[in-house]
Write a structure and sequence with these properties.
Length: 63
C-alpha cells in the first residue's frame, strides 16, 4: 500500500519476491455492503497506521 498527498506513486513488483499464490494487486467494490447499511468506522489508512504502530511498539519492547 502506498499513499501520497501530492503526487502519483509508481508501483514496482519484483517477481522474485512473490510466492506462487501471491496477489500483487487486490481491488474491492464495497457498493453492495454499503447498500445493506454497513459504514466503515476506520479508513484503510487508519487501519494500516494502527497495525504499523503495533508492530513497531512490539519490536521496541522486544529489543
Amino acid at each position: 500500500m502506498a499513499y501520497a498527498d501530492s503526487k502519483r506513486i509508481k508501483a514496482a513488483f519484483d517477481p522474485n519476491r512473490f510466492r506462487p499464490a501471491e496477489v500483487p494487486i487486490l481491488l474491492s467494490d464495497t457498493t453492495k455492503i454499503e447498500k445493506l447499511g454497513f459504514n466503515a468506522k476506520c479508513s484503510q489508512k487508519e487501519v494500516v497506521n494502527d497495525q504499523l504502530n503495533h508492530y513497531l511498539s512490539e519490536k521496541e519492547r522486544k529489543g
